[in-house]
Structure of WD repeat-containing protein 41:
Amino acid sequence: KSSVQTIGEEQIQNPYTELLVLKGHQDIVRFLVQIDDCRFASAGDDGIIFLWNAQTGEKLYELHGHTHKITAIAPFSSSDVTEEKTDLIITASADRTVIVWDCASGRQVQKVSCFHSTVKCLTVLQRLNVWLSGGSDLCVWNRKLDLLCKTSHLTDAGISALVELPKNCVAAAVGKELIIFRLSASNNGSEVWSILEVKRLVDHQDNISSLVSVNDLTFVTGSHIGELIVWDALDWTKQASECNFWDSSVQPDVQPEIKLSQSPHETSVQHLTSDEECVFAAVGKGIYVYNLQMKRVIACQRTAHDSSVLHIEKLPNRQLISCSEDGSVRIWELREKQQLPAEPVPTGFFNMWGFGRANKQANQAAKKIHENTPAYFLELVGDLIGHSSAVQMFLYFGELGLATCSADHLIILWKDGERESSLRSLTLFKKLAQNGDLQLKL
């Protein structure tokens, strides 16, 4: 029997009671990126990029240009002093090309095909008005797609993730290593750039699978064997680490499963996200809330889903959303536990027989457990059933709802049923009022 929490049909706190199914993709949809308040792009293994309206579900553009699957996608809003703001997206593919697209027209702006390997990640440094591509080397480009500089060949496996750091630095995950690079532009105004390797961090025991920037002072990495490391973003020193996500003492009220060993799949950190206070980690089938000030896990669901959790995000209102290989999307609420008062040490009659000492030891043990026990818990408040295969990721659009993409080739827009109903009533009321005006004029 699965130990995963279930929720009944009466999901009072789940607003997503309506859905729109968006069809078009012919293979796994792996990526969703937000363009603005009401537009987003989707991409995946069919090599096609679609632009959508998040309110109506209308397909705006279908972008063809890649011959293999999409491996990375990033939005890039450029605003030159001489030009008005243009919304662009950059896509990389297994066909070893990178294309820049104009979101307003759906046309191809520029294409580069000089790569020696597949580009696995793209990062836009908005402040410097450049973007980076990570593959077997790290390249720096301007928005016209001129190559400004590049590193030497790093590894055949390539860069798996990139994160921007202060002082014109970036951290690149290359296998088990974290390489810090510094970018510098020439002072004479010419487009001469250089990229310099300044440090290699080798604290991880396994390949780094996830990277997230918390703020200008902190960034966090996670590995395939469940290590989470908190780093200082200015001097790149290790601030804290957590390796016991699967340890039963993290959640003492749950009976630990008896296992001889943990497979890497069960402890892999698939995704990290953060607010200023906590890091939210998708680890194996579970989700964990790690408090950066306390330097410990304060809440967790060790079996949040039946299969690996692929993506996790925190909503503005103390809620989390997670999606999984099992095809489900779940909403969680971070709630504070009601703390029970500590029991006093018994005295008198029991003390004569030495029970007091035993109880004192028991109390100290209980106090220790109490200190390690998370002060919060994650309550399941919504379960969105719609996809028939692994849900790769999602985008949260506030009152416009939630977009999810899946291996079933579909994108689903989940809508607030009450809001949609009131919008329909309002539209109908306006229509009736207009008709009434027409009749009066006649």
